[in-house]
């Protein structure tokens, strides 16, 4: 079971958050170094690291929920057996993507890299399209009316303050 989760994390988020950004940073030494030498440099870096760590914590929480509540992994080839609608999933339908996006945004700010900003933007666009075209229709087929109720009540990307409760 742990090997299944490790494999899915290594093949998907690890590539997106570690391998590709490292490769992109290596393509060009021309980083803009936003606010370098100004009073805003350290607050930007502290905020960026906090954003990355918050994203990492959210991502790890979601992976744990996929394993415990969903009885599956984040990988499309080994999906959850049960609908995960607990924890952060009570506020937003895609908190795992939000966590990965926060890690990418944090890196873009830490490294002051327009390439990483473009990678972050591309990640968001591709995931939005993937969810519309494949993920949500697949969840509707797998979980039927349960997912339809959940989808109607919980926003896709912008978290609601009030948590969803199944009635």
Structure, briefly:
The protein is about 65% helix and about 0% strand. With about 170 residues, it is an all-alpha fold. The two termini are about 30 Å apart.
* Helix-strand makeup class: mainly alpha
Average of per-residue pLDDT values: 89
What's the SSE pattern? HHHHH
Proportion in β-strands: under 5%
Would you give an account of this structure?
Helix content is 65%, strand content 0%. By secondary structure, the protein is mainly alpha-helical. Helix 3 packs antiparallel against helix 4 (95-110) and helix 4 packs antiparallel against helix 5 (114-153).
Notable features of this structure?
5 helices, mainly alpha, 167 residues, 65% helix
Task: Break the fold down into its secondary structure elements and pairings.
Blueprint: H1 2-11, H2 13-27, H3 41-68, H4 95-110, H5 114-153
